[in-house]
Design goal:
Elements (H helix, E strand, L loop, with lengths): L22 H5 L2 E2 L5 E6 L4 E2 L5 E9 L3 E8 L5 E8 L5 E7 L8 E6 L4 E9 L6 E12 L15 E2 L6 E3 L5 E6 L4 E2 L5 E2 L1 E6 L4 E7 L5 E9 L2 E2 L3 E3 L8 E6 L4 E9 L5 E9 L67 E6 L4 E2 L5 E9 L4 E7 L5 E7 L9 E7 L5 E6 L4 E9 L5 E9 L2
Parallel strand pairs: 1-4, 11-13, 12-16
Antiparallel strand pairs: 2-10, 3-4, 4-9, 5-8, 5-10, 6-7, 6-9, 13-23, 14-15, 16-22, 17-21, 17-23, 18-19, 18-20, 18-22, 24-32, 25-26, 26-31, 27-30, 27-32, 28-29, 28-31
Amino acid sequence: MVSCFERRAVLIVALAATGMLLPSDAEAQAVLRPGVTAKGELKSGDLKLDDDTYADLWRFTGTRGQQVRITMRAPSFDAYLQLGYYNEKGEWASVDSDDDGAGGTDAKIELVLPRDAEFTVRANTLKVGETGAYSLLLESGGVSAPAPSAPPSGSSNAVTSTSPGARMPLVLGQWLSGTLGMGDDTLSDGSFADIWVYQGRRGETLTMVQKSDAVDSYLTFGPVVSGRWSWAEADNNSAGGKDSKLVVTLNSDGEYWVRPNALFSGKGPYTLFVTSSRGDQSVGAAPAAAPSGAPMPAVGSVGPLQQGLTPGVAAPQGAPPSGAAPAGAAPSAGRMPEIQMGQTIRGRLAAGDALSFDTTYIDTYVYRGKRGERINIIMMSPDFGSYLLFGREPSGGARFSSLEHVGAGAGREAKITVTVPDDGTYWIQANEFKPSEGSYVLTIEPAR
């Protein structure tokens, strides 16, 4: 698990030479019981760590493969939580730590225990001198079945992502195969990522393992909120070697993306294996199907726009799709390209395009909508601040008037979610904040 704050000091309890930790002290640790909220208080005179912060020690007996979540809440100080155990030599072995994973200044650790042991939880503070009351809650799940060490040879159960940039339904308990490379979605550092879609339930725990002989695996995970993916968890090598592993308990029902990635922008094949505390029979729901022949685009979610969106029908280059109409006039609908559900169009705003009233360039596309359908319209550009408009096709010489409009900075999504009011023809306009030239990507997808 990636901590929200990395402490550079090595946090160890002073040994017997300082009198701060003796075997009898360890034996006197209070016991944490699953499902029971424990209360404590850090105060002057408590155990001190080597950074001079106060800490209380709590213990519980854990089993290898057991899923646990430990939450520390403290209203009067910035909580810092540590989990570890004392090895055969009596030395502290750290397993995980967290600063603010429970939101605000509260801390949370979620993981699968690496071994059978008597584990120690350190209820600690982030800053020297902080004191006050706190609570600890240990929640424990079952023992998760480990992923096989390698995909079964010739397995007929393997699921393979063969279309770069596609969003694949995530199947639990089976090996999923893919390849990172050109045409895939990209993260903000330009590295490639595949998207596996899962419909999760609040409280279930997912265990995810990414393996690859070709790349240094980097596994990312997060929820989709209002149509936008949010980076929540990431791991580089917790599965050993260059393989990655994440164990995450879901906070809410909804859509989640598991995104196999590579450290240092590597390319090549990988395998993914995911299990759930709900059992292995569940299948993540696939996105709504696009029309035959129109691929579902993989829309980038964070950082500058990079290569990696699924190509759709290319917008005309150089020639304005709207016919270079004078400022404010409605262009001829007969000269505008259509855009369909599930389609991604790559376009360019440049000299010769139609002009908006503020002399910015504008491309116009026709969409034939059906009453009651909900759609997401997404525009992104690495070159300028996107401005997106949606409205009815004007008639009788009237000027275009948008029903919805939204803008976003360069490299970010301008997104409109709309319920089509009636059957008919609508206009979608790709625009910009100020007169400039550059490329953009325009996508229509079903809104959930």
